[in-house]
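User: C-alpha cells for both sequences below?

Assistant:
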Amino acid sequence: MIWLAATLAMTAVQDGPVPYTAASPTSQERYSGPPVRPYEPSWDTPQAEGDAYMVTRRALETPVVLQAYDGTYEATPTDAEVVYQQGVTSAAMRANALMGPLDGLWRVAASDGTPVLELLMMDRGDGALVEGAWREPAAPEAALTSRRLGALSLVVRSGQTLVIDVDDPDGPARLELERDGAGWRGTLERNGAATAVVMAPLG
C-alpha cells in the first residue's frame, strides 16, 4: 500500500499529518514472496569475448539534455549488459502477465467526460485483496502540488460488479460499478449525491 500512495504523492503535497484509523485489511495479510522474483544475475557469469570491465566512451561534442537522452551517445552495450537487460525485461513481463485485470492506472470520468478521479490499483491476480490509491485529476490551470490524494480503503470485485471505497478526508465516497467492455460503468456516491461515472484504463 505504501508504494501506491507514494507514487501518487510525487505530484501532491500533504496538508498535514494523517491520523491513524482502523488497519487496512491488506495490512493484516501474512507476507509471501512475489510469484516471480526479480532477475538476479550470478556474479560468476563469465564475460563474453570482447567484454571489458572498463568501457571507453567517446567524448560528447555538445551538451545533451536529460529529456533528449536516448542512449545514442553511449558506448555499445557489452554482451553481459544485453543479457542483464533481457533478464530484467523477461522477469517484468512474466510478473505483469500474472497480475489481475484491475492492476494499473484508471480514470473515473462523469458522463460528460469530465475527469473525477484517478485510481492506481495493484491486483496480484491470486485472489488476494486489491490495494490502491486515488488522486484528483489535474485541473488545467492548477499546480500539480495542489492535487488531493488518499488511499482506497476497500476494493471488492464479485463477478461483473465492483465496489471501491475511497478514503477522502472531506468525507467517504463509494464507487459502485458494473463491467462495461474493457472498463466499468456505474455511480460515484459522495456527500449524499450520486453521479453517473465511467471508469476506463489509462495508458
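Moving on to the next sequence.
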Amino acid sequence: MNIRYFSLFSLLICLSVGGKATEKDSLSLIQKKWLIEQPVNQFMRDLYMHNPALRFYSAKTSISTIQLDGQTYRERKPINWQKGEKYRHYSISAHTLRELSANSLVWGGASYQNKTTKGLRFNNTSDYEKIAPYVLADTIGGQFYSETYQFQGGYLHHFKSKLTLGLELNYRAEIGYKRQDPRPKNIVSDLEFKLGISQALKKNYLVGMGFYFQNYKQQNTIQFFSSHLTTPIYHLTGLGMRSMRFDGTFYGVQFDGISYGANLNFQPQNQRGWFAHTSWIHTKVDKRISEWSNIPMNRLQSYLLEGTAGFQATHWAVKLVGEINTKEGTDYLYGKPQGRTLPKIGEEQLYNQEYLKVGIAGLWQTSFSTKNLEWVIEPQLSFQSLKESYDLPNRKLEKQVLNIKLLSTLRKEFNTGALTWKAQVDIIPHLSHSIVMSEMEEDNPIRPLIEQQMTLVSKNEIAGHTSIRWDLPFLISQKVSLFTQLNWSGRFIDHYKPAQQMGLTLGFIF
C-alpha cells in the first residue's frame, strides 16, 4: 500500500475513534483542550513522556484534534550550513486521546510533513542531530526535499491493585532527496517502543518504572546524473576531519542504530506534591559501506543521563533539572582490498563530545475569575557546557553559556471562545570558550565549515518567540471547535543578521 494512502487511512481512524466516543463531562471543547495544554498541567510532562503508565495520573479528557501547519524560516547569514539557511514546510496531523473507561486510556496519532530546505552544505544525510559528525558531505550544496510520515499509538490500564501498565509505539518513515547533482536519496525507518508500570502508594504518591527501545535505519545513497560534473563526496568524522581514504569513492552507506534505556519515577497521584525522575539511554549507530557488504566504517555511541526533582502546588511549582550526554566516535581501519573484501586491521576511538546542563525552572499562575483571565509566568535558568574534541590531530572546541529564559502565557476566555498569547525570551550570554585546531590545511575542502563553527563558539545570543491563538466555536457544528494560531521566532547572534521563523496553524477540536 502506498504510504500516502496509509497515512490518510490512519488519520481517518483517529477521527472516527474520536467521533464515536461518549463524553462524560460538560466541559466545552475549548476548555478540554486547555485543560491538557495548561502550563501547570504540563510542568511534570517529562515524566509521562518517558513512562506511558503515568498518563493515567495526568490531566486528561477525551478529545481529538486535526490541524494544518505551515512554517517558513530564513537566515540572512548562514549559522550552520549542515542544517541549511532557509526552509519551508507544511504538515497535516491528527491526534486523539480517549477514556475507554474509568481505568483505561487509549491515544494515537498520525502526521505527514513536506519540507524544503535551502542552502544545505556539507551534509547529504538525514537526521543530522542523530548521525553527526558521520555524514556524507559535498561542497556544492543545494535544495533538499523531505517527506515524513509519523504514526503513534498507546494504551494503558489501571488495575484494582492500583498497578498501572502502559505501552506506546511510535513509527517514523522519511524520504529525503535532491533534484540536482550530487543527488542523495535517503530512506529512514525509525521505530520506538515504550513500556511503563506504576504502583500507587499511600499518602497520595506513586512509583514508576519505564523501559525504552528504538530501532533505527537509514539508507543514504548518492547518484550523479550528469557525466560532466562529478564533485567529491567526503565522509566526515568531526571538527573538519574526514576519512580521506574514501574521498570520492563510496557513494552509498547505511546507518544501523539501536537504543535502549530505563527510567524511574516518583510523583504525587494528583500532581500536587514532591516529584523526581531519572532516565538513562544508551544509543549505538553504525555507519556501514553498502558497496562492501555493509562493513562498518564508523561507530557512534552516546550515553544520556537525565534527572529532575521538584515540588508542585496548585498555582506554583519549582524543579531542578540536570542532563549529561556523552558521545564517542570510533573509526575502523582497513587494509588493501582482497577480492571483494576489506580486511580490518584496527580501530581508533578519536571523536568525543560532552554536553552538560544543570538548571532550575519555576512556574507561577494567577487567575482573575471576574475577568476570565489567566496569567502564567515560567522563569528558567541553566548553565550549559559543550566540549567537542578529536584526538589525532589534536582539535578541540569548548564553550560554556548561561541560558536565562522567561515564558509568559496570558489567556482570556469569552462567552464564545478564548484568546491565548505566549511570549518567550532566551538570553544566552557567552561565559568562556577554548579552541585548539592543529594541522588546519589551507586546501582542506571542509575548512569553511570548521571556520564557521569556530566563529560561533564565542558569540552571545538572544532568541525570542511569540504566538497568538484564537479558539472559537465552529459555526457548522456544535460538536466541533476551531482554532487558528500565528507564531513568530527570531534569533539574534552577535554580528549576525537576525534569523526569523513564521508559522500559521489552523485546527479543529472535537
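User: Anything stand out in the second?

Assistant: Helices lie at 3-20, 29-37, 39-42, 45-50, 128-131, 447-456.
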